[in-house]
Design a protein that fits this description.
It is built from 1 helix and no strands. It has 80 residues and is mainly alpha-helical. The radius of gyration is 35 Å and the shape is rod-shaped.
Length: 80
């Protein structure tokens, strides 16, 4: 009988180790996934910032073009 009790205790301890290992592995995977998500969010924020700068440049250029068009139109009206 003592042999079976020791064997049962050892199996229970081994099962606890396996379950604990699974839990720790799952937590590590969650932490790693969160780290990747944070890095991706930072990268996307930089992309958004660059797109915003590009859009501002385009708007400035559009205003310059419109101003030049008005000047050309005014010059053409005066010549007529």
């Amino acid at each position: 009988m003592p042999f079976n009790v020791q064997r049962g205790d050892r199996l229970a301890a081994d099962l606890q180790v396996v379950i604990l290992s699974i839990i720790i592995g799952t937590l590590a995977a969650i932490v790693y996934s969160l780290r990747i998500l944070v890095l991706m969010e930072r990268r996307i924020a930089r992309i958004d910032e660059n797109l915003y700068r590009i859009a501002k440049r385009i708007v400035r250029e559009e205003f310059k073009i419109e101003k030049e068009e008005r000047q050309i139109a005014a010059t053409l009206k005066r010549k007529k």
